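Hi! If you just cloned this repository, the fastest way to understand the data is to look at a raw example. We've pasted two of them here, unedited. The first protein comes first, obviously.
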Amino acid sequence: MNARNLIFVIIVIFFLGTITGRVVLINEHLEVIEKEMEKPVVVQLAPIQEALITITAYTARKEECNKDPHRTAIMTKPKVGRTIAVSHDLIHWLGGWVYISGVGIRKVEDLMNERFTMKMDLLVDSVSEATKWGIQERRVIFLGR
């Protein structure tokens, strides 16, 4: 019996007692309730999507973007400190949030060129900042949408 069923049973007992005019005390059923409460509660969570990913950095300039440097793949304005681009094999993360170790939480808003796999591009302010970042491998956890 799970917690939802247990609450349902308690409510039914209460209403039956009310309808029949008999007062039903919870204490009469306390032993059963306590046994059910001792059972572990199993909650099924979605599997964690985690990977070691190569991360580079880019700026929102025409030289580095395929089409419109002022719009991402999900039609938002790119923002430093929020926007990241992912390779096409990670397209199912598009529109979601990720945690990048040592960087923080970012939103997957853009796509990289199709030639890349298992890569991310971190949006930064300047070319010098992108160069300083270089190529790094980081643990990335997909947090969901």
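Ok, and the second one:
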Amino acid sequence: MRVANRRGFTLVELLVVIGIIALLVSILLPALNKAREDAKRVRCLSNQRQLVMAYQMYYTENKGRLCSSNTPNFAPPDSKRWWSWAAAGNTLSCLSNGKLWPYVKAYEVYKCPNDRIMYTHTYSINGHLAGEGPLPIYTQGAIKKAYATFVFIEELDPRGYEINSFMVNRYPSNSWTDVPGNMHINAGIISFADGHALIWPFSDPRTYTNPQIGMSTPNDPDLRQIQAWVGVGPFPPGVVQ
């Protein structure tokens, strides 16, 4: 009986196959990473839409009064002084004790899926909406342009937990107070008082390259954009709201 002569792969053939596989991986991996990031952006957009909807439901049930964007130490819920959207601290109780918790009882909604820094939540509320800002807005009716007044924004705080609201120095200041979080490859997610949310691609590398709280960035288009969205003038000329 004759036995067939079996021939294996040569070294050259194996190297060719490995090279082809490596080439395919190098082509497909960026596409897979982009698809993964796109999915996280969609999830983050959904998070903020849910939170701004909760924000709207709160003021609808409270005669148009906005919940505070500050995050002080928790006071008993029957206290008239307690009206903050979230409480201070780095434990999950800071969310469950907040005024928006009855409307969104899911901890994961309060955090960006890309966030590996903040303990409990990624998002902060505009400091000019019943918060620390000068000329604060306390009622829904006092918001002049809901479509151009931001509510929630991803904030970067190196301490690992958000403290109070997201403060913006009004135009013509050239310095930030708080800085947006670079959670989506040189972009952030931001939502507005009319309920819509969008992906905000940063234009200036200073916004996402080692940003510092209180940093000065003259002629920064990102700073001018957030000043246009803060809801309280003066507004930078020529910036689309």
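That's it. A detail worth noticing about the second one: The two ends are 86 Å apart (CA to CA).
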